[in-house]
């Protein structure tokens, strides 16, 4: 995969990556301690713009004041922040209405900026509101979770959930800047950090075996916060930026980024988008299932499957359906119910299932027109396994 354009800026510790999309190109700034530069960066990009921060209650406790201070010190006017509840429940029609009306009430104009300060939920929600308020307002992503820094903040996918499935209502709306301050990850709970790590491992499995091998050896440093963390975030963003630049609207290659997500999104829906299963945890189970399903189709070996499962388990991620809390509840233990949820996946074409599978570790492929009966049988077999 061609690498994204990369430079060092402001200090040797800040990595700048460009998402090359012509007139909509933007930079990803990655490094420790970058939040204080937010105001100056915004002022350089949009002189005179007003801003409105959208965040959630937990992030606000830690990072709202520093973000507001950064804007104030640079002379960037900020409206009253819009604070939503934590969790996937905020990716809903009702909360989208609240955020949109809040931006309108704050008189945020088309030449102003929305700042999404938070994890994937806030980024998706605030980004979608930005896409539709006044038919489009620019926004800046300030991701505060590992998952958001390496995945959801980059690429312009914004949206909310439907009761029928994950991310079914949304729009492509690119940010003008992503500011990934790795220091903010220090306040994440261990479970939240692990959930984000699933998306890091995904990049190695889908397109870079060397990176996956590096993760197998260096994951402890990512969790402890040494320089391995910045390297992992930059490598993940570099991989995603390259794919997005080549396939912005997911007409082909970008679908590879959904490795593990067809299974994972169905599991999230089956658990009611609750804290029973974080998104990254669903992706971890989904990637293991995708590896096992790939092996069943003769694409990779059982040794490869074991390696995927062993690595995810080594960092404390769930890898089996039985690892999900109360997995027999709410359809999680029902193969037909899970299959029905998979048919709401965005990759379904004319009623045909599409999966992202592995033809080898480090190389994912798009497999179209997968026989639903084979998926049902596979899920039934996995559901019949006894818990550890």
TrEMBL record:
Family: Belongs to the sugar phosphate cyclases superfamily. Dehydroquinate synthase family.
Function: Catalyzes the conversion of 3-deoxy-D-arabino-heptulosonate 7-phosphate (DAHP) to dehydroquinate (DHQ).
Annotated 3-dehydroquinate synthase N-terminal domain residues: 82-194
Taxonomy, superkingdom: Bacteria
EC number: 4.2.3.4
GO molecular function, one term: 3-dehydroquinate synthase activity
Name of the protein this chain belongs to: 3-dehydroquinate synthase
GO BP annotations, alphabetical order: amino acid biosynthetic process; aromatic amino acid family biosynthetic process; chorismate biosynthetic process
Gene: aroB
Reaction catalysis annotation: 7-phospho-2-dehydro-3-deoxy-D-arabino-heptonate = 3-dehydroquinate + phosphate
GO cellular component, one term: cytoplasm
Pfam families, sorted: DHQ_synthase, DHQS_C
Subcellular location, record wording: Cytoplasm
Chief localisation class: cytoplasm
Residues reported in the UniProt entry to bind NAD(+): 86-91, 120-124, 144-145, 157, 166
NCBIfam families in UniProt: aroB
Species annotation: Afipia felis
Record: residues binding Zn(2+): 199, 261, 279
């Amino acid at each position: 995969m061609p690498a994204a354009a990369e430079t060092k800026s402001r200090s040797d510790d800040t990595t700048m990556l460009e998402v090359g999309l012509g007139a909509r190109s933007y930079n990803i700034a990655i490094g420790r301690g970058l939040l204080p530069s937010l105001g100056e960066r915004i002022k350089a990009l949009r002189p005179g713009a007003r801003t409105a921060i959208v965040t959630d209650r937990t992030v606000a406790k830690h990072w709202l004041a520093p973000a507001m201070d950064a804007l104030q010190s640079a002379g960037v006017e900020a409206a009253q922040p819009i604070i939503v509840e934590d969790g996937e429940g905020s990716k809903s029609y009702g909360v989208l209405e609240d955020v949109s009306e809040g931006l309108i009430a704050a008189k945020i104009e088309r030449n102003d900026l929305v700042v999404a300060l938070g994890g994937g939920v806030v980024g998706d929600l605030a980004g979608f509101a930005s896409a539709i308020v006044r038919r489009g307002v620019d926004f800046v992503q300030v991701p505060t979770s590992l998952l958001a820094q390496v995945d959801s903040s980059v690429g312009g996918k914004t949206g909310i959930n439907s009761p029928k499935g994950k991310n079914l209502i949304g729009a492509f709306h690119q940010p003008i800047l992503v500011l990934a301050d790795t220091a903010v990850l220090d306040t994440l709970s261990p479970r939240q950090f692990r959930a984000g790590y699933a998306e890091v491992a995904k990049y190695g499995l889908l397109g870079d075996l060397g990176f996956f091998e590096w993760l197998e050896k260096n994951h402890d440093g990512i969790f402890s916060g040494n320089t391995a963390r910045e390297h992992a975030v930059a490598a993940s963003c570099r991989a995603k930026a390259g794919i997005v630049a080549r396939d912005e609207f997911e007409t082909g290659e970008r679908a590879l980024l959904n490795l593990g997500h067809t299974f994972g999104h169905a599991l999230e829906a089956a658990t009611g988008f609750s804290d029973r299963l974080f998104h990254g945890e669903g992706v971890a189970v989904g990637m293991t299932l995708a590896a096992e399903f790939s092996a069943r189709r003769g694409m990779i070996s059982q040794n490869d499957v074991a390696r995927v499962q062993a690595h995810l388990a080594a960092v404390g991620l769930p890898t089996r359906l039985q690892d999900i809390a109360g997995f027999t509840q709410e359809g999680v233990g029902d193969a037909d119910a899970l299959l029905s949820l998979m048919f709401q996946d965005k990759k379904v074409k004319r009623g045909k299932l599409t999966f992202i599978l592995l033809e080898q570790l480090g190389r994912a492929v798009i497999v179209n027109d997968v026989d639903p009966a084979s998926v049902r049988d596979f899920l039934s077999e996995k559901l019949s396994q006894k818990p550890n």
